Amino acid sequence: MTLRRRKSSRLSRRPKPSRGSTHKARQRKGPKQVALAEVKDNLSRYLRLAVDEEIVITRHGRPAGILIGFASEEDWFEYRLEHHPEFLRRIEEARIALRAGQGIPLRDLR
After folding, report:
1. How far apart, in whole angstroms, are the C-alpha atoms of residue 73 and residue 28?
2. pTM score, two decimals?
3. What whole-number distance in Å separates Cα of residue 77 and Cα of residue 24?
4. What fold does the segment set 30-69 form as a domain?
5. 53, exposed or middle or buried, with CB in 10 Å at 0-12, 13-18, 19+?
6. Strands 55-59 and 32-35
């Protein structure tokens, strides 16, 4: 039995994206969504993927959580710092003080 190739005109064929193309990335809107059961079955895989993009974990088709990966310990430290309430409060206080004219100009720190 031989397989027949279906003939198609050149005009009807869509060009295939080249290897390394970002074609699919441009089509996707927002973070990747994955069902909880799939994440549970392939957690290591999704942790690797989460280094480059956030992964929304869904339960019954609805967002239930988010998986965020870290490429290094420094990334983990920065994430913790950026989300620490005390650090955020101190940054806001410093910004308010600068707007009020308080603070030391950079040229005076030398």
Report:
1. 29
2. 0.54
3. 31
4. YefM-like fold (3.40.1620)
5. middle
6. parallel
pLDDT on residue 17: 53
Who has greater pLDDT, 3 or 83? 83
Rounded to 5°, the CA angle 88-29-48 comes to: 70
User: What are the pLDDT digits (tens) for 41-100?
Assistant: 999 999 999 999 999 999 999 999 999 999 999 999 999 999 999 999 999 999 999 889
Residue (of 30, 34, 58) closest to 46 by Cα position: 34
- Measure Cα distances from 109 to 65, 103, 104, 105, 106 in Å: 44, 11, 7, 7, 5
Beta strand pairing call for 55-59 and 62-67? antiparallel
